[in-house]
Amino acid sequence: MSIRYFFLITTALLIITTAQVNAAVFTVTSTNACGENSLYAAVTAANLVPGADTIEITPGLVISDNCTYDNELNYWDPILQATESLTINGNGAQFVGLNYFFNNAGDLNPWTQTACPLHDSNVTLAGWSAPLLHVGERNADNTGIEVVINNLIIRNLAQVAEVMDGAKLTLQEVEARDIRDITLCNRAAITAGDADLTLEQVEIDGAQGFTNIAGSAAIAGGNGKLEIYNSRLSDNVDRQAVSWNGHADIVSSIFSNAGGLANPGLGFGTMNVINSLLFQENFPMNNWREHIRAASGATINFQASTLFFDVVNCADDLSCLWQPGVEPTSAIWATSGATINFVETAVHAFITGPDAMLEQSLLLESLGGTITADAMTYFQPLPHQGASALESITSQASLITGDDALPESPGLPSNLAVPFPASVTPLISGGAILVDQIPDAGTGEANELMDPRGNVIDLDVLGNPRVDGSFRSIGAVQNNVIPHLVAVIDPQDPFTADLFWNQPTSPGISGYDLCHGTGSAPDPGAIGDNCPGTLVEGFSTSATDTAGTVPGLPAASTHWFLVRAYAGVTKEPWSNVASVQTPVTITYPATTLTTGTPIAISPSITGTPVNPVFQVTFGTLPAGLTLNPTTGAITGTMSGGCNSTVGLLAVDSSGALAVTAIAFSCYQAIPTQPGFALGTMIALLAGLGVLRIRVTT
Q: 245, 235, 323: which is closest to 283 by C-alpha?
């Protein structure tokens, strides 16, 4: 063991806060991932203490990855490795990695990148971070090792975790954002061998693997048990959401533009999907990634769930036209003895018209497998697979295939004409064939919805009451008198919020009011008809106009929103709270440095960060220059070598993050004498090995 690692372990042992021999509590106070009082030191020390230890991270702490470089990790090494049972209480802390790359246009981490950044000559890696955690060890008996991580935000790493055979990982109230494997480009955000994985109230947003290998997924596992409860995966752009061979229970969870679900059947496992929503919105479905597939004897059961496909087989608008000689492609398929069962589930394609769909597009296809449905399941007929074909393939003569189910379009819009959540909410007009169709669904009744743990599911996938009296709607979304509100930052303006909600069931709605403010959000059930922020009456003046924008939001703030319907002078209850976090944007000018010449560079800041702290996250400032941690100013006189790109991270007291980089062009000052040509001196000194000129843009 090196002296350095002996020091880290010794330091961590000194911060044990309990005298128990078989379990210990460690406290993490360092903003560096490695070093004294760090998370790495705590995990390393916990591995030496028998029993289920606990690590407490200082509330709100922002931890930067210095381990990847300081510990000289290889691409496949983790930052942390747990070999004993452990609970890590994040207490709202953030772990921020260094996964940043630039393309030739200067774009930082562009989503349009498809090739592996490490091997792409058109891309420059500005920094990289290893996976956060390995649970257990390869080729070892990991039985009984369980790691629990609570209330932690994880950003810009290669991977969240890999769980070795026999071990278990539980994530609770964890947010994992921008998980990109920019080096190996073949890892899931979470990988488990023959191991167990549980996700409860977890968000995985923006996972990217840069691979087209069939079977790759954001969550991938072998023959262990997978549980996903009340979680959300979104914008997983280039692979499936889940590929799991063993047993899997997915309950009350949302998969938004996250790819499809797969049970490859290597372990003949069963996947249960209950009260959950899968939808592709403005992500045309053009390959295996978005499919639901079961193979080789596997089983997938859908109950009280909604599957929503924007376009079933289109890579772009032109390819949505009929192409003769092209084989049919299906959204859902079962092969080689596999089975897919649908109970009380809605399966829908938004774009349905013959001029907008490939004539060979299918919802269902059985390729040596079996697909079944009960009489309370709905399928959207397509031009190439109508109602009779759907009834035949599911062996269900009473299959629901009529109109007035979910919104649809007869043509190809430039973007989804009915945005989420209205796009997945059963229509309350016309026949309303999905609304309140399941009887005896109340407490203790025959059709009460239960999860695999034996608990009652009393909320729909959007968080509204699951039943209306004793009736439940088909699918995962229950119509309600309270609208469900979604707020997102406008992709063109980071200080504008785009708001979307669904139409409630109240009769005679004539419009919607908006209430919004900054800071702590109110409890909608405790404010009555009042608005504790800014009230905008008549924000929308139509029952079916369920979208709007709020521009001019303050930077570096959390802004909350509520909407309510009104019918004349009657005010309906407020919706759920939806909120957005506006960013702080920081940019530095490209800078030319010359040895011996003083410089002063200040960042351009959009917004007003609250007590920000600036720090270097990758690269090093040239010798002689210093970074002001409060203002972000870089000052001094370069006296030595120069890194081409230096990354900086700013964190304000609210936890808002801004990441930027500054590019340096560096020149060595060359002394000259009268009558001696500059070019001659450069050639002479370079030939003698005295001078090396490095120019980087």
A: 235
Regarding predicted confidence, which is higher, 357 or 141? 141
3-state secondary structure of 320: helix
Which of 3.40.50.150, 2.60.40.10, 3.40.50.620, 2.40.10.120 is the CATH number of 485-581? 2.60.40.10
Distance of CA 350 to the CA centre of its chain: 24
* Torsion angle in degrees (nearest 10) through CA of 147, 153, 155, 157: -10
Confidence at 660, pLDDT banded by 50, 70, 90: confident
User: Which pTM was predicted?
Assistant: 0.84
Those residues whose C-beta lies under 8 Å from the C-beta of residue 139, and which sit 6 or more positions away, are none
Degrees (nearest 5) of the Cα angle 237, 238, 240?
95
pLDDT at 325: 44
Which two three-digit tokens encode residue 210? 């840069």
Domain with CATH 2.60.40.10 in the chain: 485-581, 585-687
Model confidence at 71, pLDDT cuts 50, 70, 90, reads: confident
Is-contact 158 99, C-beta < 8 A? yes
- Give the pLDDT score at 450: 98
- Give residue-wise pLDDT tens across range 194-249: 999 999 999 999 888 886 555 578 999 999 999 999 999 998 877 889 999 999 99
Please say whether the beta carbons of 506 and 481 come within 8 A.
Answer: yes
Burial degree of 606 (CB within 10 A; 0-12, 13-18, 19+): middle
- Tokens 């309303």 belong to 432
Cβ atoms of 498 and 516 within 8 Å: the answer is no
Distance (Å, rounded) from C-alpha 21 to C-alpha 9?
A: 17
Residue 177 dihedral angles phi and psi, to the nearest 5°: -125, 140
Strand order from edge to edge, sheet including 240-244: 80-82, 133-135, 161-163, 190-192, 217-221, 240-244, 261-263, 292-294, 329-335, 361-367
Q: With bands split at pLDDT 50, 70 and 90, how would you rate the model's confidence at 407?
A: confident
Q: Tokens representing 252?
A: 């009350």
Q: How many CA atoms lie within 13 A of 238 on its CB side?
A: 21
Alpha-carbon distance of 329 to 225, in angstroms, equals 31
> Mean of the pLDDT values across residues 400-426?
75
- Contact predicate 627/634, CB 8 Å: yes
Tokens standing for residue 302:
């859908």
Between vectors from CA 618 to CA 616 and to CA 620, what angle results, nearest 5°? Answer: 70
Whether 100 contacts 109, CB under 8 Å: yes
Whole-angstrom Cα distance, residue 33 to residue 493? Answer: 33
Burial class (CB in 10 A: 0-12, 13-18, 19+), 697: exposed
Q: What angle do CA 445, 447, 449 make, to 5 degrees?
A: 105
Q: What pLDDT, on the 0 to 100 scale, is given for residue 656?
A: 63
Q: Which of 403, 356, 354, 347 is nearest to 379 (CA)?
A: 347
- State how far the Cα of 659 lies from the Cα of 421, in Å rounded to an integer: 31
Could you read off the pLDDT of 6-27 as tens digits, one per residue? 334 444 444 444 444 568 999 9
Extract the tokens encoding 344.
């009380």
Domain 585-687 class in CATH: mainly beta
Beta strands in 511-601 (DSSP E): 511-518, 534-540, 547-550, 558-567, 570-571, 578-581, 585-587, 591-594, 598-601
Sequence-separated (6 or more) residues with CB below 8 Å from residue 382 = 312, 349, 352, 357, 361, 362, 363
138-147: b (≥16 Cβ within 10 Å) or e: eeeebeebbb
For residue 407, cis peptide bond before it (omega within 30 degrees of 0): no
